[in-house]
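Bumping with the actual sequence this time:
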Amino acid sequence: MRLDILTILPELIEGPLGHSIIKRAREKGIVEINLHNIRDYSLNRQKQVDDYAFGGGAGMVMCIEPIDRLISRLTGERHYDEIIYLSPDGERFTQKTANYLAMQNNIILLCGHYKGVDQRVRDHLITREISVGDYVLSGGELAAAIIADCIVRLLPGGISDETSALTDSFQDNLLAPPVYTRPAEYKGWKVPEILQSGHQQKIDEWRHQQAEERTMRLRPDLLKSEE
């Protein structure tokens, strides 16, 4: 898979992409992640990428020209399955969306800033808009890091135990069941005996029951969305 991230602050996202699962996946060639500085595609001597909004109002708006030049260059070199603008008013990012994106080959993630991008970018240059939550960030870089991390761990070889991703929260509209490790007793707090029984079928049944009960208690909306 190839991810191209378009940003005016590449240094803001370099850290999250250079450690842990993503770092190992990049080193193994499982994913190729490229950061592109939108300022490099500005013809302005000052490398300006923003301007005042037509009609007035507070805040600056990212200009269409440098974004268009960068996207046109990339799409001229290869086909992209999705060109995604990260926006607080986009569709809510979910595990289902992550599963879909993990099956694609080439994806562009466009990080907004200021008051967002010129509407013509959204109307003509992108294929999808995604939000990581109902709140506003200073820019799309942290959202891009979240999406990249979520996608990469789903790729074959992205994590050492690939079955682990299949039991994550939200994969089947259920939260993950509680987990325990050694010691079996600590300060009088004991690990459930069923987990120490060695009877895998009963353990699986217990975990599923716990997942359902935890979801009903903490996130009943997930069960409703399954109906």
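The tokens above came from a reply further down the thread. The chain has two domains: 2-152, 167-226.
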